[in-house]
Amino acid sequence: MTEPETASLEQLLASAGAPGDLAPRVAAALGPEAAARLAADPWLILSVPGVRPEAADGFARSVLSGSAGPEDPRRARAVLGWLLDRAALDGHTAQPADVLCSALGTLGFTDPAAALQAALEEGDVLAFSNAVEDEGEEPAEPSAGGLMISRERYAFAEEGIGEAVQRLLATPEPLGEGWAQLDTSGDRIHGELRDTVGAHGLTLLATAPGIAKTAQIAGFAEAAAAAGVPVAMVGGNAASVRTLNRELGGTELTVLSVQEYLDSLGRGEASGSGTATAEADSQTDSQADSQADSEATAEAASDGVPSSDTTGSGTDVDLEVAEPPAPKFAEPQPGLVVVCAAHQIDAESLAALLDAVPEGMRVLLAGDPAEPGPAGPGQPFRDLMETRSESLLAYTSDGRVPRVRAADSEPHPLTDLRFALREGELPPPENDPEKRLVIVPVRDSGEAVARAVQLAADSIPRTFGLAAEDIQVITIRASGDAGAETLTRALRERLGTEDVRALTAREALGGTWPAAVVVLDGPSSGSLTRALVYGLCGLAERHLSIVHGAGSALPQAVANVPDRPRHTRLPAVLREL
Fold first, then answer.
1. Which residues, by range, are in coiled-coil regions (predicted)?
2. How many CA atoms lie within 13 Å of 455's alpha carbon, on the beta-carbon side?
3. Which of 115, 313, 315, 425 is an S-S bond match for 420, by CB 3.0 to 4.6 Å?
4. Of 183, 247, 259, 242, whose CA–CA distance to 212 is shortest?
């Protein structure tokens, strides 16, 4: 056996001049056989967080004693995976083949199309045609310009969502006599929602921009339970779970995370590692700070230090894990699964969730497609909302998944602001004697921190009689002069307690608090979009303070940058059902 095959991982890395602290990260990414795997395919090191293609090339030349060439199929497979993993951090489940070919050319492949083909033949990636063929016409030979490339895990997840949509729409059980008498009084729920959920196995609810969006969902779930219908409540992320449990305090309903719901059905392992709740912290900076749109993959290939897809590549490990037995249910039972903040659930998590829903149960996915998508790859709620499919004409006249728009809330300065933001307008603040919306201009990040702390620790508690736990400070980034870490230290010093914590936008979206202080300093301006500003302005129920140091970037983002686009295949999957 050759020396690279018998060398330990530490020896193998040291001989290539790799940093001494790299071994634990390599072992975590590649498993206990990391040394043997790298000896056979040194470009696998690209799956380790922080390793770039040029570093992987140097490592490969060392391991293979100079015989590593730029066109090596192993290199093509690894570099393509690296590009797709970088794209996944920005929410994409797939990438256009021509964009990937451009990036491969930038990274030294003289024949990018051939490299792509080699990777497709050997790697865990799949190609899908975007072409729409006429009936009876022979399919054309696919070209790079007509293909979308996806990792198997994301392709299977989106296929799974499509299959679940068909199953749920085809197999609902009657909800019982009490459903027709379900109480629809008040402004929290209405008859159209009752009738649509009663008629279909899957319903989408677009929550209203108003401050009562959470109360509407909680009220509907309470009414359904009171009508004798078994109700399961699931939150799309940690913030929504906390908010709904607070809203439902004193009732028999408990909101579970996606993972907890899967565990309750004996399907915990089936969820993978990509649940939105678990991913929120790890994906915060990579998405909030990203200023590159989906067209910039080629440029990204040569700029910046990559982050690894924290959902884990883990293909070999996944294959070794036995598929858990499917839960055995008795006869199909009528019931309702209400999913809150569904727009915060990524493709893999939603596929696992819908696949686990027992036969006969109905599902209500409630979310706001105008807010930013989930922390992980995909935007399944938005895709389900926007896609028409001929196969769905059997259920709805317009070929869309059945949907309802929630009743609007009573007039309120925060509601009015959200309605304007959704249309791309940033109106000047109105004179409000009750001070439910306050804009605080600041000059720099230091002043932003000082004013945010003063508002949260003094002004808002004094004016509204709120406790510290009722006031949440939110900022765009985790680190930096006005990041969540800095704000947390300043709040704890001012309040003299360790229990308070500022949140990043990614951690906060999906939830609400009685009062919120949103910090938009200058360095955060490049991350702003209309969807993000709209989402941030929906975090408060009684009072919102915006510490504004982003200058003209704020109105420009609201007017001109709707959201960071995501490439996904779910619309195509739905159209192909």
1. none
2. 27
3. 425
4. 247
Cβ contact 15:37 at 8 Å: no
What single-letter DSSP state applies at residue 49? T
User: Is-contact 443 542, C-beta < 8 A?
Assistant: no
Torsion sign, CA atoms 415, 421, 425, 430? positive
* Element housing 39 (H / E): helix 34-40
For residues 53, 93, 520, 426, the Cα torsion angle rounded to the nearest 10 degrees is: 140
Question: DSSP 3-state helix, strand, coil percentages of the chain (rounded to 5)?
Answer: 50, 10, 40
Joined together, the tokens standing for residue 562 give: 């709707």
Query: Could you give the CA distance from residue 391 to residue 157 in angstroms, rounded to a whole number?
Result: 20
Query: Regarding beta strands 403-405 and 202-206, do their DSSP bridges make them parallel or antiparallel, or are they unpaired?
Result: parallel
Q: Which residues pair with 403 in a beta bridge?
A: 204
pLDDT in tens, the chain (577 residues): 444 445 789 999 998 898 878 999 999 999 999 999 999 999 999 999 999 999 999 999 999 987 888 889 999 999 999 999 999 999 999 999 999 999 999 999 999 999 999 999 887 899 998 654 333 444 444 456 689 999 999 999 999 999 999 999 998 888 888 898 887 776 556 788 999 999 999 999 999 887 777 888 888 899 999 889 999 999 999 999 999 999 998 889 999 999 999 999 988 764 444 443 344 344 444 444 443 333 333 343 333 333 333 333 333 333 333 444 444 444 566 799 999 999 999 999 999 999 999 888 999 999 999 999 999 999 999 999 999 999 999 999 999 999 998 877 778 899 999 999 999 999 988 888 899 999 999 999 999 999 999 999 999 999 999 999 999 999 999 999 999 999 999 999 999 999 999 999 999 999 999 999 999 999 999 999 999 999 999 999 999 999 999 999 999 999 999 999 999 999 999 999 8
Distance CA 29, CA 307 (A): 13
Q: How, if at all, do strands 147-151 and 125-129 pair?
A: antiparallel
Query: What are the distances in angstroms from CA 359 to CA 100, 266, 330?
Result: 41, 15, 9
User: CA 253, CA 300: separation in Å to the nearest integer?
Assistant: 46
Q: Say how many CA atoms lie within 13 Å of 144 toward its Cβ.
A: 16
- Measured in whole angstroms, the distance separating CA 180 from the mean position of its chain's CA atoms is 36
Could you tell me which of 287, 278, 276 has the C-alpha nearest to residue 345?
Answer: 276
pTM: 0.86
Other CB atoms within 10 Å distance of the CB of residue 453: 22
For residues 350 and 161, the answer to whether their CB atoms sit within 8 Å is yes
Q: How far is CA 342 from the centre of its chain?
A: 10
Using CB atoms within 10 Å of the CB of residue 21, give its burial: 0 to 12 exposed, 13 to 18 middle, 19+ buried.
exposed
Residue labelled with tokens 């399919």: 139
